[in-house]
Fold:
Amino acid sequence: MTKGIGSWGWHTVPQKHLQNRVLRFTQAKVIGGGSSINAQLYTRGVPADYDEWVSEEGSTGWGYEDVLPYFKKAENNQRFVNRFHGYQGPLGVSNPISPLPICEAYFQAGQELGIPFNPDFNGQTQEGLGYYQLTQFNARRSSTSIAYLKPISDRPNLSVMLNTMATRVIVESDRVVGVEVVQGRGSTPLVLRAQREVIVSSGAIGSPKLLMQSGIGPADHLRAVGVKVQHDLPGIGSNLQDHLDLFVIAECTGDHTYDKYNQPHHAAWAGIQYLLFKKGPVASSLFETGGFWYADCVEKARSPDIQFHLGLGSGIEAGVAKMQNSGVTLNTAYLRPRSRGTVRLSSSDPAAAPLLDPNYWSDPHDRVMGIKGLRLAREILQQPAMRRYVKAEVLPGSDLTSDEDLFQYACNHAKTDHHPVGTCKMGPASDVRSVVTPDLKLIGLEGIRVVDASVMPRVPSCNTNAPTIMVAEKGADHILGRI
Ligand SMILES: Cc1cc2nc3c(=O)[nH]c(=O)nc-3n(C[C@H](O)[C@H](O)[C@H](O)COP(=O)(O)OP(=O)(O)OC[C@H]3O[C@@H](n4cnc5c(N)ncnc54)[C@H](O)[C@@H]3O)c2cc1C
Structure:
């Protein structure tokens, strides 16, 4: 199993609807979770995403007007302040400081296709192409660890245990009373007892995994892997959703992206540039340019359903042959997938990797929309404004034109956008699919809440870091009894 820096090294199970391909599924294994390793894109989705959490999923109290104050509370925005933005929170949010001229050409290409420029995807409208704001403050990553934990690290009621894995939550009668942890391989488990509540925040894969290895989850599955059932809660580990990413890679007409920094002397200069001027590729997220548009421009969806990420290089994605000049990548993802998957245990051993099945494209609608998004990305890169920068498409390649060709391409190259959510779904206690109620309390047990991306009943139409931080901000108010 290959593991990237700070990652668990997980993979999906063979994806039935992608010709049984196994996809790498990076999830952070580091303090601050994904916010410490992600591309730092700061996006929130659209009001309808949250309003549907209420109207379609029964997550009362989580409509857009309920959650907007928590997005703003979190935010220390270095550019905007208005109905949508604030600057008094801990989370640094700022505009990218190292875009390249090719980004501006990409905006013009959009305009040539009728897609407007948008200066703020989290404001009045999400439509258009533009720069993402980043979770950065003064050119430094603003992870949840840096933004939230570091400033309070000397509080007497806070202990941070690094290199420590929670192996189970401890259930006594109908109450969760603590957690068992291990510090390093083979060490004796340590039991930490809770005075009030246990808050599970292990992410959309880690939280259902931890709960199931504690005996909380679908009873038949737990029995099948030899875990003693403590509490039968069928929804745990179901309802897994993710954004599946397809991409176009093109060769540039010259050194127009950051690819050249793969060479040691350019890389050394990049380091010096960052140290001296806080600029250049080190300060870049490489994906700070993107946007939102419609898979189908005639039958427009209720809000954009395709997201773009312009990757300022080609080595970013696997599977591209070496090119003479630098390359550019345009990633695209369908934002409101109907496919649902699962997280299950492979064994009762907490150290074992989970069985991770996003079940991509099990709903054929997602495949149709994904391929439309790929075609749109291709069209953007072919606009006249791009000709100054783009020589030719390399992947999928001009020979691949039919839907079937592009399906084959997707089966070989699709990847996760790293947005898993939904596996401890929030909803009414009366709904058998619900895992937590809208105050994030786990249904059927006392003394436990789940607060992370897993509670989102549906994936919002965006990247998922800012929505997760919003869930945590609102969750804090629930825990403190303020709402
Ligand atoms: C490579 C990558 C790029 C991304 N890019 C972006 C982006 O640019 N913009 C954006 O908005 N979103 C992005 N995301 C998604 C975003 O980072 C996540 O949605 C967000 O971090 C989810 O937060 P979480 O707290 O739910 O889970 P996580 O961030 O996964 O945090 C869970 C934490 O719990 C720990 N954990 C799990 N199990 C245990 C256990 N048993 N014991 C102890 N600790 C445990 C994990 O190690 C991890 O540190 C990206 C994610 C990844 C992985």
In short: The chain has a mean pLDDT of 94. Residues 43 and 462 are 6 Å apart (CA to CA).
